[in-house]
Amino acid sequence: MNSDRLYEKGVAITGIGQSEVARPSSKTAMQLTVDAALEAITDAGLTRDDIDGVACWPGDNNHGNSFSPVGPNALIGTLGLKVNWYGGGYEGPGPLAGVINGAMAIAAGLCRHVLVFRTITEASARLMDKSASALSNKTVGRDSSFFWQWYTPYHVHSAVNLVAMYAQAHFHRYGTTAEQLAQIALTCRANAMLNPKAIFRTPMTMADYLASRMISTPLRLLDCDVHCDASTALVLSHIDAARAGPHRPVRIEAIGSALHQPWSWDQISLTRMAAFDAAQMMWQRTDVKPHEVRQAQLYDGFSILTLLWLEALGLAPEGEGGRFIEGGQRIARDGPLPLNTNGGQLSGGRTHGLGYVHEACTQLWGRGGQRQIAPHQIAVVAAGGGPLAGCLLLVRE
């Protein structure tokens, strides 16, 4: 492998920040964003004058709705930044697109320090409209859009209806059970109980999980993430500048963003997603092997997505994800592969992608407090479901 041509290896995360995580928050979306952004800039040992790039995903989506109420233009103006590059848009490899695009901008020499952020205010929106966070509301003109035109005639109004097909297929093909899948939710809740920012911090038992109402068979209420209001931010820096900062750089060792199948939520194989394409690309860009990973922050918009990411990344054998997580010991904080250590989106709150990067860095820098895991250097982060898939391999120098 010729690493000289892999752009991400010259980029590192140098600072992180996160606003309050609330259900709902009394703060505006911009207030939450500014809180997270300023914390990340300060954490990196920088000032606003140092920031010369801004990135987010999906930008000021649908004119500032709750799914993405703040875009790059608004934040640049509010913070008084002078940037050489900025970007945000809906298409791309899902919630980690801002990190991937920001890293490319640094590698291209357009900027030295990129502020990446993700703001979401779905908890506030749901007070006025319970369908505000439905996937079908996140595409303008959905009935005539590329993919919703095939789904809405069949009353598919939420991602849960689509993702449940993956779960049902996995149960049928591989013998996965509800008790096995429950370990994702149970592990996240156990971790959330030690996270002061987590939305749900009360204990959860297997009985609680099995008693929760069915939403779309076989997915239950406790298989679904928790809407909240929050903003998460981080600073990406050129590796030379990163090494002069206050923290050991968390270097981006490899990126996965590939899509080798049709862009569709019901893809060719219902036990695979674009996650498998993205993961294969990521491992091709590094000499690190899956068994060297010591923490995994994997998308849990629905619990089945986490299980599929475990398989896609080679952390569990394909088809054996259910058996891999059975009992929960392997993915516990003191296990060989701690999973979603801040409670993930199932219990911590749906910070939607960037929250996983924030937690990975928190753990790599040893800032986890009561939920801190054993010292380590290598983490994997993955976000997205269906056709939206991106993953990062992070190494603390």
Explain the overall architecture:
This protein has 14 helices and 11 strands. By secondary structure, the chain is of the alpha/beta class. Helix 7 packs across helix 11 and helix 10 packs parallel to helix 11. The two termini are 20 Å apart.
DSSP summary: helix tally: 14
Distance between the termini: 20 Å
Helix content: 25-40%
- β-strand number: 11
Order of SSEs, N→C?
EHEHEHEHHHHHEEEHEHEHHHHEE
Calculate the mean pLDDT score and round it. 92
Alpha-beta content class:
alpha/beta
Q: Catalogue the unreliable spans.
A: none
Radius of gyration: 19 Å
* Strand composition percent: 15-25%
Sheet with most strands: strand arrangement = 3-2-4-7-1-8-11-10-9
Shape: globular
> What's the main sheet like?
9 strands, mixed
Topology of helices and strands:
Blueprint lengths: L10 E8 L10 H15 L9 E4 L15 H8 L5 E4 L8 H11 L5 E9 H7 L19 H4 L7 H16 L3 H15 L13 H6 L2 E3 L2 E2 L8 E10 H4 L7 E7 L17 H11 L11 E3 L4 H10 L8 H5 L18 H5 L5 H11 L13 E6 L6 E7 L1
Parallel strand pairs: 2-3, 2-4, 9-10
Antiparallel strand pairs: 1-7, 1-8, 4-7, 5-6, 8-11, 10-11
Helix pairs in contact: 7-11, 10-11
